[in-house]
Every structure is written in C-alpha cells, then in structure tokens.
Design goal:
With about 200 residues, the protein is mainly alpha-helical. Helices cover about 75% and strands about 5% of the residues. It is built from 9 helices and 4 strands. The strands form 2 sheets. Strands 1-4 form a two-stranded antiparallel sheet.
Length: about 200
C-alpha cells in the first residue's frame, strides 16, 4: 500500500496494525493461547555456548541491516528515497521497489520479534506487544533516526535501544508508577521529534 499509493506510511502502519490485531482477536476469540511447541521454546529460551539464542539473532539482524544500508547499492537507494523521494525517482531509482523492500523487511523483523516473545512467555495473548510500537519509535528517535527521512544509522538505533531500555528499568527500580512511565515515554518521543524537526527547518 505504501509503495503503490500516496497514503502516509505512518497511517498505513497504524491501520494495518489494528486490522491484524482485530483478525487475531476474531481467530482466537480473544483468549490466551498456551504455546507448547518446542521450536518456539528453543528460539525464545534456548542457548548456544551459554549465550541466549536471541542475542545471536540480534547480532545477526544488526550486522545484516548495517551491511545492507552501508555497503550495498540498495542501502544508498534507501537513504536517497527516505531523504527525497522525488529526487530519487528523477535519478532513476526504483522508489516503489525500494519502499516495498523496506516495509517487507520491517514486517519480517516484526514477525521474528513476535515469535521470540512468544517463545519467552510460552503464551500468546491479545495484549502482547501493545505499546511496543511506541517504544520502538522512542528508541529510534533517541538513536538519531530522523522522522523527515534519509538520516539514521543502525548503530544509533542500537544505542537508542540501550538508552531507552536503561531508562525504563531505572524508572521501575525507582518505583515510579507504570502509568507515569508512559508519560515519560511520550515526553521523550515528543522532545526528540521536536529537536529533529528544528534541525530540519534550520537546514532548509
């Protein structure tokens, strides 16, 4: 939808997220499902040489994503498309294909995260993952990813994840009300995006 229409990507993402959740609720009758499959348990709780499988997968995703963005023509096209879609089209880049790849790859990573989460909790519930999209946005903007597009690095996202996770755990350890943590998360996102927009205006 994003690659073939002019509908804003953020709107499409939110809409399809709600559609997916609705289908899941209908299919499961909004009930918690026990996951007893050993393959889920392996990916969620398994280990190799004493280190969790999930750590290896995270490192693999970081390496592959960094390689694509920094070492391939596709990566250059992704940055160009994000920075200025029209200019990218005029320069001969297949913007529709690049956009499709980015969202397909993002969908794959979201599915992988879902499998790993279920493997850790042994259950699938309707509220699992609620709010995770906001945590992802917060980690990315804190890590220097621009909402205007074309700016950001995987290494920055990793740093952003560590910072945001450390902040969340710190608030929990300090005994801050969970509801207030949502407030802090919103403030962080708003502040980071505001600074990003101010930098964009100054550049123009």
């Amino acid at each position: 939808i994003v690659s073939r229409t002019t509908i804003p990507a953020f709107i499409v993402t939110l809409a399809t997220m709600n559609i997916g959740r609705g289908i899941a609720r209908i299919y499961t009758h909004a009930q918690t499902i026990a996951v007893l499959d050993d393959s889920y348990t392996f990916w969620g709780m398994g280990s190799i040489f004493g280190l969790p499988i999930q750590l290896y997968l995270i490192i693999a995703v970081v390496i592959v994503s960094s390689f694509i963005l920094n070492r391939t023509r596709l990566g250059r096209h992704i940055y160009a498309t994000g920075g200025n879609r029209m200019a990218a089209e005029y320069s001969g880049i297949n913007v529709k294909w690049v956009t499709f790849f980015v969202f397909a790859f993002s969908g794959f990573l979201a599915a992988l995260a879902g499998v790993l989460t279920v493997g850790r909790t042994f259950t699938a519930t309707m509220i699992m993952g609620d709010g995770a999209e906001m945590d992802a946005i917060a980690a990315c903007v804190v890590g220097g990813v621009s909402f205007t597009g074309g700016i950001g690095k995987i290494s920055g996202v990793v740093v952003g994840v560590f910072i945001f996770t450390a902040l969340t755990y710190s608030l929990t350890i300090l005994g801050i009300d969970t509801n207030l943590q949502f407030v802090f998360s919103g403030i962080i996102i708003l502040s980071a995006v505001t600074l990003d927009c101010l930098k964009y205006v100054q550049k123009k």
